[in-house]
């Protein structure tokens, strides 16, 4: 731990089920960084209070408050934590590793995240998919295509950026778990999206998911309401 970080207390504002909150919780748990948990309830609009909007004017989680400074956007928070707490590095130890990890992070953010979220997760969660079975199946096919680079990478190495787990894996995992969760809903099964068990068509990705589910901090960070 850096001298600067050792004098600071971290407060994490988060919501259960938010994949972006989950990313930061995984990083905190894996790096064994203590923090004060501030769980917000979206049903009570706790992310729209003047106090919270003072931390993030967009009203979104996660937000990490450290001293008097508030930081939002999940990848930025993970990068900050890795710099402030360099033990158990998530962005590599060499310039080559650093660049490769950021490449993988950006590949997922640019080519996977919005496809999963906008075309599949949101329509299923909001009930907009029921009258668009053909469109949803087309989106599911695109999702499999978008996962191709991950399957290829994980066929060569155990993690997305090589032999060690990094920020790239932590960034990707929650969104993929969210995709799997909504794809297991009865209406998604009825549409035959085929996303509920990715390991059938993507065995290397399936093996990676199993490894990631055993990582330090996974159980503690798992969305509480998903356990019900």
TrEMBL record:
Domain GST N-terminal: start-end pairs: 8-89
Protein keywords: Isomerase, Pyruvate
GO molecular function list: isomerase activity
Pfam families in the record: GST_C_2, GST_N_2
Domain GST C-terminal: 94-228
Domain of life per record: Bacteria
Family matches, as PANTHER family: GLUTATHIONE S-TRANSFERASE-RELATED, HYPOTHETICAL GLUTATHIONE S-TRANSFERASE LIKE PROTEIN
Official protein name in the record: Maleylpyruvate isomerase
């Amino acid at each position: 731990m850096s001298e600067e970080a050792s004098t600071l207390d971290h407060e994490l504002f988060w919501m259960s089920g938010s994949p972006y909150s989950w990313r930061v919780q995984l990083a905190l748990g894996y790096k064994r960084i203590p923090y004060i948990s501030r769980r917000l309830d979206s049903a009570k609009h706790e992310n729209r209070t003047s106090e919270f909007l003072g931390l993030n004017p967009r009203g979104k989680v996660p937000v990490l408050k450290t001293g008097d400074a508030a930081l939002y956007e999940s990848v930025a928070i993970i990068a900050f934590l890795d710099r402030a707490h360099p033990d158990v590095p998530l962005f590599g130890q060499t310039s080559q590793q650093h660049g490769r990890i950021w490449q993988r992070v950006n590949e997922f953010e640019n080519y996977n995240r919005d496809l999963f979220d906008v075309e599949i997760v949101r329509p299923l969660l909001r009930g907009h998919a029921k009258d668009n079975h053909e469109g949803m199946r087309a989106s599911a096919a695109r999702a499999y295509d978008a996962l191709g680079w991950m399957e290829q990478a994980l066929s060569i190495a155990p993690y997305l950026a090589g032999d060690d787990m990094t920020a790239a894996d932590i960034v990707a995992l929650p969104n993929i778990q969210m995709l799997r969760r909504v794809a297991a809903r009865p209406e998604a099964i009825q549409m035959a999206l085929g996303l509920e068990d990715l390991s059938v068509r993507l065995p290397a990705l399936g093996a990676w998911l199993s490894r990631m589910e055993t990582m330090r901090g996974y159980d503690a960070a798992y969305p509480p309401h998903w356990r019900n």
